[in-house]
Amino acid sequence: MDANVGHPRRWQILGVMVFSLLAVVLDNTILNVAIKTIADPVHGLGASQSQLEWAMNSYTLVFAGLLFTFGVLGDRFGRKRMLLFGMVLFGLASVASAYAQDPGQLIGARALMGLGGAAIMPATLAIISNVFPIQERGRAIGIWAAGVGIAVAIGPITGGLLLEHFWWGSVFLVNVPIVVLAIVLNVTIVPDSKDPNHTKLDPVGVLLSILGLVSLVYGIVRVSDLGTVADVSVIVPSLIGLAILGGFVWYESRIEHPAFDVRNFRKAGFSTAIAAVGLTFFAAMGMMFFMAFYWQIVRGFTPLQSGALVLPFAAAQLIFAPQSAKMVQKYGAKAVGTVAMLIVALALGAYAFVQVDTAVWVLLLLGFVQGAAMANLLPPATTAIMNSLPREKAGVGSSMSNVVRQVGGTLGIAALGAILSAVYQNGMEDKLRGLPPQVAQIANESISGAAGVAEHLGAQGTALLRAADESFVNGMHWSAVIASLIALAGVFVMARWMPGKIAASTVPVREKETASSVS
Q: Where are the domains of the chain?
């Protein structure tokens, strides 16, 4: 393959990569609308709140913990092989999830889905970086990002449609035809590629990355479970995870063949883009997660309707992400990234003014603006990450980008969720007097608990639900302010350290286009 031209079928390969990623992204969003049905003792599994949380968290733990590992393995043994392994495992685990007989089986099957997803996600971006020349890579990654945005939007809609006509397991079974077709397309169209240097594996570094990431993510998701950071099950795993990751960095800086060369963090483009991605996902994912509760519980929309309300965000991704590379070429990564991050911060801050009865069109416009800004921020940042590493390390670069996305988003949901929960519970304290203690406790835990209790209290329930709506929205306001401040920190990072137009367009010294082995 001519490294300056790229693979002759690179655009078809790009389409296959976007389609391959569809099942993973679709599943991450589709499950949210099925939570209530799975909890139903008659039509679902009768799962408790804790079991439902672990059905989601088991996936997150395995997925985040093994992303880096599979990126390393893909570079060493072949990215196409890792992708096909992940697709097969993801498909089988989807079937196991669909036909789970109890919550425990569902939790285990979801963990296997996380394992498959961890093999798929970094491979798609690594293959794209490998088949496209550097001058086209930004546009290709923009299209890849647009595909992710579309999948995020159609997930809830697909879930709502399936639950209206089929049983809860259909939200997992829908992955199977996607997986089968993706496997066929990968086998027939996609070339394999790997690091031709056959460097030694770094088992100690890989093990440290797994232990550190799993421990850190476990501590983070416990924040969501408990609604507080002041608990030993949050603090201890988080500190252990950070210590292990610190040991990982120390070890990688001292061995001859590291799984990840930590000297890459000395590159302004790489480290700034990594920080921007993490801050963006921290700030944005929390608010997007809570808006699902706002639409369905506060505003009373059905899962299908609430899914459709995400379409403006997806439309903005589809329109602007493929064009982001042209914006960077014209104005430079620093200018585009800084302005985009500022718009994200302003859009998130605008949620602090959302009320229980805010006009729907205002929120749709807000979603479109946020989607457009993120479409001009994340693809250039991802491109900067991938371009900072030699082509033979594309899997590692993709893994780093996706690990930061996952950890940043998980941390954002947990931290902003803890803030929202604290404000909600504080606002509900005076509204629960006169209710039986057990009922009051359920209503005080979450707005979904209050909604369930209100159904059985008649006129008193109406007043309770109104108070819960107001407390939840007040909690959203505080979370929005914090999310906006986090995004503003990203504005400073981009404006201060992101390379400008000339530097961003320069091919990295370590870019070894001819070193890749592509068959």
A: 10-201+259-430+466-518, 202-258
